[in-house]
Design goal:
TIM Barrel; 404 residues; two-stranded parallel ribbon; 11 strands; Helicase, Ruva Protein, domain 3; 16 helices; globular; alpha/beta
Length: 404
């Protein structure tokens, strides 16, 4: 199996239990008690499957709130021992100096903390718990005093869209390596949340592109679940790291997969399990990756509507989860895109170049949570230039161009 045919990021919802009740939660999590659907023994089996399919991949341990699993430190330790790169996705409220120390000892290589407003009152309301903002900030302080590199996550909604620029300042001043702006997909409790309009969505993406240019070399600024940013970034700066840095387009089912709290495997967290979706308890991960119809269709997409006619079909392709949630068809056009296509599809070369041993060793030195983005960006850059082997010299060249 080649690198091009296996995931480089696996996101695992290790539990549905959570100590918060976020209004936009795609899992509809909130239970604090009860047994997890996947036992420790089954979790160890899952890790073996992941390591076989995607050796060295970034494994995102999230939830719910993953720190509510009593065995999360054991899961992380085993993942690290198998050569995976475990990182933690958390609401931050349970992070203390002692917990962060245990995470470090368990091999956690990065963490992402979700903060949805600089206003404590708004964050607490969105997160469903008074005091959540203060506790999350305490978690950020614990991480900043540790060896674990971390990033901050911000879900953009009507109520907080004016905070995007100031949130980047906040993330940078608190020592975050990156800030990710997520955009709602109407699944789980997110179905009841008020999403941005397509015009507002476009405006926020344009601001993110501008701020990424401003902060270049200091902090990574990225948009998630917003593949349209490739078009917007190209209109501002065709050499933007948002394009060259491997963050354009959607990688669901083609470089990325999700394991649900029950063990179901889907192309991304916002694509819910079907009634007949395969479960890792009874199916091999490689078999699911190679044969499940959603994964197969996403690797050879036949987009419909405007997405099928768009000149950015290959570099963007729209959000497939949003199309599914709003129309019931994974391949329909993304209704939150305001662009009217003009045709003449901009084609990208798909063959992944090889890596020299020296380049692979240098890549391993990057923080785990940004390593996949660096890898994808370098492969896109090399393919565009017709280069067959990635070397340290090429890495330095792209770094100079993007300011990273």
């Amino acid at each position: 199996m080649t690198d091009a045919s296996r995931p480089f990021i696996v996101s695992w919802n290790t539990t549905k239990r959570c100590n918060l009740a976020c209004g936009h939660c795609y899992l509809d999590s909130s239970e604090l008690t009860g047994a997890d659907a996947v036992s420790t023994v089954e979790a160890n089996s899952f890790l073996d499957e992941i390591a076989e399919l995607a050796p060295g991949c970034m494994l995102v341990l999230t939830g719910g709130e993953p720190l509510l699993r009593h065995d999360i430190f054991d899961i992380s330790s085993r993942a690290a021992s198998l050569g995976l790169s475990p990182v933690l996705g958390t609401n931050g409220t349970l992070l203390t100096d002692e917990i962060v120390k245990r995470l470090t000892e368990a091999g956690i290589q990065g963490a992402g903390v979700s903060v949805d407003s600089l206003s404590p009152a708004l964050h607490d309301r969105v997160r469903g718990m008074e005091g959540a903002w203060t506790k999350a900030c305490g978690g950020i302080e614990a991480l900043s005093a540790s060896p674990i590199p971390f990033q901050l996550q911000f879900t953009v909604m009507k109520e907080n869209k004016e905070e995007v620029a100031s949130f980047i300042d906040f993330a940078y001043s608190h020592g975050a390596k990156a800030v990710n702006f997520f955009f709602l997909v109407c699944t789980g409790r997110g179905q009841r949340s008020t999403d941005l309009s397509p015009v507002e969505y476009e405006s926020v993406l344009r601001l993110i592109v501008q701020k990424e240019e401003e902060y270049k070399g200091r902090i990574m600024v990225r948009a998630r679940c917003a593949p349209h940013i490739v078009r917007i970034a190209g209109s501002v700066n065709n050499s933007s790291s948002l394009i060259k840095g491997g963050t354009s387009g959607c990688i669901a089912g083609d470089g990325y997969l999700r394991i649900s709290p029950e063990g179901f495997v889907t192309p991304c967290p916002y694509i819910p399990a079907r009634a007949d979706s395969p479960n890792l308890k009874s199916s091999s991960l490689k078999g699911i990756w190679d044969e499940d119809r959603d994964f197969v269709s996403l690797r050879a997409p036949r987009h419909k509507g405007r997405c099928g006619e768009c000149e950015y079909a290959q570099g963007c392709g729209g959000c497939r989860a949003r199309a599914l949630a709003t129309t019931g068809d994974l391949m329909n056009e993304d209704p939150w895109c305001a662009h009217e296509p003009v045709g003449n599809i901009i084609k990208e070369k798909s063959s992944a170049p090889a890596w020299s041993v020296e380049a692979e060793e240098r890549l391993k030195k990057a923080p785990a949570f940004i390593r996949p983005m660096i890898k994808k960006g370098l492969e896109r850059y090399a393919a565009a230039k017709g280069i067959r082997v990635i070397t340290p010299e090429l890495m330095a060249e792209l770094r100079e161009k993007t300011g990273r």
